Amino acid sequence: MQALAARVRRKAMHGAGRAMALAGILPGPRFRCPVCGFIGSFPTTYGANAPRRYCRCPKCGAAERHRLQRLVIERIRDRLPAGARGLQFAPDPMTPVLCGLCADFITADIMPRQGSIVLDMTRMELPDDAFDLVYASHVLEHIPADRAAIAQVHRILKPGGIAILPVPIVAPKTVEYPPGVTDGDGHVRAPGLDYYDRYRERFAEVELVTSAEVDQATQPWIYEDRTIFPNATATCRPAMPGERHLDAVPICRK
Fold first, then answer.
1. CA 25 and chain centroid, separation
2. In the chain, how many domains are there?
3. Which of 58, 68, 108, 123 has its CA 20 to 30 A from that of 93?
4. In a domain, 19, yes or no
5. In the chain, which ranges are continuous DSSP H helix?
6. 49 falls within a domain
7. Is residue 43 assigned to a domain?
8. Domain of residue 215, CATH code
9. Using one digit for the tens of pLDDT, what is the confidence trace for 137-192?
């Protein structure tokens, strides 16, 4: 009952902040959402662990990672061929944007919603060299056999194709959790920036775009107290100092 009450309180607090932001009366700095164009304050999001300041756009719900990814998508737009084929795992706020980039676009998940296909990222029954773009945001941190999934993404990409495979950067250095252990978000590891070295094992080129390199008016940083870790819900996740944390999106080319 206490956990349920806490969730209700968090939802009410977020709802109040969102309503104030949409009404233009929420105190704090003003930002621009590159996903929907909203300009104004971004409310705090209250999760099971620490609150995240300036997290979600109150209009479209895009979080920090979505805003950074939206800016990265603009960077790759001219690198895709006309008639591009795209595949996205785990549809999210980027789905309409990606759909607009590709003439042929498929969404997939291991437990798909309506409109998506069933697909195990580690064992894809898809032909080689089939897609110009593969997109999987915050997926690989849930997959124990992540290198198998990375190999599959590389296999189904056409030569010169692009994979966008960001994971949450939540540790100074990647920590693999013991078998059977996950955190409160179902993650099997706590990735650090070094996690992207696994992509360099497969791809010809891996370019990182970080929070520091894009338009700061879009608020692409993670404002979160990470000194609370490890805790009861994330027993193996390491602590990180500071209140503002870098995010990074890899652009992988085959």
1. 29
2. 1
3. 123
4. no
5. 2-22, 64-76, 95-101, 146-156, 197-200
6. no
7. no
8. 3.40.50.150
9. 999 999 999 999 999 999 999 999 999 999 999 999 999 999 999 998 899 999 99
